[in-house]
Amino acid sequence: MINQHTDPAAWALLMYELEDAEDGLKSLFKDIAEDPEFGEVEFRIHMAHIYVHLNRAWNSRNATAEQQSDDVLWKKWGRFPVDIEPL
User: Fold this and answer.
1) Cα–Cα distance between 48 and 85 in angstroms, integer?
2) pLDDT beneath 50: ranges in the chain
3) Residue 69 belongs to what H/E stretch?
């Protein structure tokens, strides 16, 4: 896995994905708590947003900053990982 010492730019991009997923979770918690009309559609939208960032973080965890800036890879990495098993 990349780290902040070996590839600071790639590390920053990885952290961006994780931070955006965190922001998505916070927004989900807030909307569920505050919106009495919150339903399935809203939940799906929030979860899709969260998952795409988590998926990119997982799928790009070993990528260089140059690879992370590749549009084709960026879209591919947004898909659910195939190399992770639920615990």
Assistant:
1) 19
2) none
3) none
46 in Cβ contact with 24 (< 8 Å): yes
What's the confidence (pLDDT) of residue 63? 93
Query: What would you measure as the largest C-alpha separation in the chain, in angstroms?
Result: 47
Rounded CA gap, 77 and 82, in Å? 10
Q: By 3-state DSSP, what share of the chain in percent is helix, strand and coil, each rounded to 5?
A: 65, 0, 35
Cβ atoms of residues 26 and 41 within 8 Å: no
Amino acid present at 75? K
From 82, 68, 87, 54, select the one nearest 13 (Cα to Cα): 68
Residue-level pLDDT at 83? 87
CA distance 70 to 87: 31
**Is residue 59 a contact partner of residue 76, using CB atoms and an 8 Å limit?**
yes
